# Entry
Amino acid sequence: MKAYTGKSVFGGIAIGKISVYKKNEHLIKRMKIHDADAEMERYKTARSEAILQLQGLYDKALKEVGEANAAIFEVHQMMLEDDDYNKSVENIVRNQEVNAEYAVAMTGDNFAQMFASMDDDYMRERAADVKDISERLITVLSGSEDSSADSKEPVIIVADDLAPSETVQLDKDMVLSFVTVHGSLNSHTAILARTMAIPALIGTPIPLDETVDGKLGIVDGITGIIYVDPDEDTLIEMQKKQAEETEKKNLLQTLKGRENVTLDGQKVMLYANIGNIKDLATVIQNDAGGIGLFRSEFIYLENDHYPTEEEQFQIYKKVAETMAGKRVIIRTLDIGADKQCDYFDMEHEENPALGYRAIRICLTRPEIFKTQLRALFRASAFGKIAIMYPMITSISEIKKIQEMVALVKAELNMEGIEHDNPEQGIMIETPAAAIISDELAKEVDFFSIGTNDLTQYTLAIDRQNTKLDEFYDPHHPAILRMISIVVENAHKAGIWAGICGELGADQSLTKEFLAMGVDELSVSPGSILPIRKIVLETNVEEYKAGK
Ligand code: PEP
Ligand code: MG
# Structure
């Protein structure tokens, strides 16, 4: 048995097979070959295998996500049959007398560059596809396994780190737990683990090799330890702990249906954060009063093209209908920083967290913003949708948003398309917004405090940088004071204020938030009932008096 200690992101116990997640990154060696015919045979065999894999992925996607989303795998198959691509590989193999892996890598790079420089949006987006098929070919040629191949049983995923774009591709039903070597407490992998309410560890110094892969593992999200190949005693002890955890969870279920009201009658809204419509089941199971943050950028991350108005409309409508009249706050696109989307073709930035992201993209690429707003307004006819804008720093941004909203409404009215007038709110996640929250409050219907970014920008600490976790103090008095000021300013202007950053779920602060008068806490679904328990047991006046 081996044990490795990391930092826990979410509690609970997971027991199951470990699967080491391998990225499709290959170090391509240029090797001299002497038999070009044999090398081309090897290439052709690999190509047939890759086409077969793609057919398998197409069939799976067709069942799971429908024809429109599965079509990409058909496009990839066609690309592998493209004459120009295959000729280029052959020329390099024969003329330079080099191995097929190298020829494919060169061809992939050349073609991707060519596509990327084209004027047509559709063709530009194909650059990522060429890279993708080339990676697949190289994976087959080098005899390594396809990392995207799904396991047949639920597993503990152990990885170096996981980018948001990688986590979206994982079959969530097959994941018992995440354990990463890197990653920070506020990375989106950590947030995903909390949303899925599964134990997860980050910053775990675990080897990513055969001493771990395929072995039985136990992740203890309470102590932050992963056991590999556990001995009999540990296994029995952990099974017992797992059963106790399940019992605690079941006890919390008895709080379902109760109002979130303190002993002295103060009410608070307990909402859920989601990134995907698949999360809706846990939202309902955990009795959320609404959705306080739907991170709509995941719709963009899950696609390989700009999601169309119709595609987005169907998703927003589904969420609104499923929540049946409960408030659903959908945050507009927050791409950029750690959430990168290939087809956005973003330029390299020295400081992406301080760069071109979120509302800044929407206001400078109005066609993207308008498409999303139209979809949101249309969906508002099917439930209680509220729209929330991220990364606000000024009144002038709000004015520009209001102009776009007016335009969208006018267009929809002219086209005779039904819509409601969804509430308009903003995230308070920059110090600038917190400080001018008295002014901002006059312009919007609600505030939601994004403590993840507010902490990052206030303490000047990159939330992605795991080395800084010890300095990342979300309990810093500057943060708590800002939250209090924002709530006060909201109330003065007659609007409500909530918290949708991870701090909202920090149970050591629940009483403090109630004392500040926070109106809403939006947390991962698994945290709703534990927080409800605290609310029900709190007397806010007594707490304030005892401070
Ligand atoms: C936040 O910054 O607190 C927030 C909720 O947004 P995200 O984590 O998606 O940046
Ligand atoms: Mg944020």
User: Anything to note?
Assistant: Residues 290 and 326 are 5 Å apart (CA to CA).
